[in-house]
Each structure stands twice: as structure tokens, then as C-alpha cells.
Design goal:
Shape: globular
Radius of gyration: 17 Å
Distance between the termini: 41 Å
Order of helices and strands: HHHHHHHEEHHH
Strand content: under 5%
Helix content: over 70%
Structural class: mainly alpha
Number of strands: 2
Amino acid sequence: MSLTLFIIVITCLVSVLGFNNPDIVRKLAHYPVAEKNNKEYYRMLTAGFVHGDMFHLFVNMFVLYGFGEFVEAKFKELHGEMAGSIIYVLFYLLIVVLANIPSYVKNQNNARYSAIGASGATSGVLFSYILFSPLSWLELYFFLPIPAIVFGVIYLWYSNYASRKLNDMIDHDAHFYGAIAGFLFTALMKKELIFDFINELTSILQ
């Protein structure tokens, strides 16, 4: 079993347990007030393993399955089987946390705010994929095919816009910063990756 599938299985198990026991969700959710006042910083990690409903879980695991195994294979190609596996798992867990930090800063005194889901981490995985393969064609959520880099630009623009303008109870900050963190983490692993990324983009102008 790939590490990506293992993460999916664990996430599904914990999420389904949460569907049947709301106390699990309350204890694991990203809740900035509790993190600040009670030092429950673990919530910024555990929130990535619980979801609001089956559709929420499906969307995140669909994205993770669709791109995670490719990214996992690339990490192993760059670092070797063992080191690549460890780095990939750390990458995923770190992005879960990093994606939640901006909303912690913004809502640490807002007792009405909480968030759950792996969207920040799956955004990071997707943008790691975009760094590796910016001109590949995506068919996310059954939309018409779109180049990965174009989707990435639209995704970042919308996430930033929605964070500032919408009040829809979705943590768009986590989507935006998770995506940025995933891209930068991958780029920093090996400087040649960013040059390859730029070269691939400029190749369409030649």
C-alpha cells in the first residue's frame, strides 16, 4: 500500500468515527481560541483528519488520491525509497499545520470560529504536483480539462478573493496558504525543480 493510500485510509476511519460521534470532531477540530488559551496546538494537525460530512471527505480524498501518489513517487525518486517516504509523510503533516496557522492568527480571539478538513493539505499536494508538471491537463471535479498551471493561478486568485469577500464558513485561507506551502516545500527540496518549472513554462513561448 502506498503512503498516500495509508493516509486516505486513516483519514477516512477517523472522519467516519467523527460522523457518528460529534465529540471526536469537537476535540480534534482546529479551534484557535482553545489553541491559544489552553495550548491545544495539536488541533492544527488533528483537524486535517476529521470532516463535516461524506461529500467533504470524498472531495478531499479524491484530490489526494488523484495527485498524492504521483507526488509521493517523485519524492522517492528525488530522495530514495526510505528517505522519500519519510519526507513525503512529514510534508503532508507539515502542510496540514501550516495551512491552519493563518486562520489561527486571524481568529485566536474569535470563539465562534472553528475549522476541520484536509483541504489545506490536499491543496499543498496539488500544488506540489503543479510544480512537477505545470503543463499537464487536469480534469478536477469533472470540469473541462485545464492546464495545471492555469488551474493553479485561478485557484489561488479565488481562494484569496473568497477569504476577503465571502462569509461562507469555508477556510479559504487554508486553501491558499496550504497551496503556497506545498509548492514552496517542494521547490526548496531541490533548486533544480524551480528551474525545470520555469523552463517548462517558457517552452510554450518558443
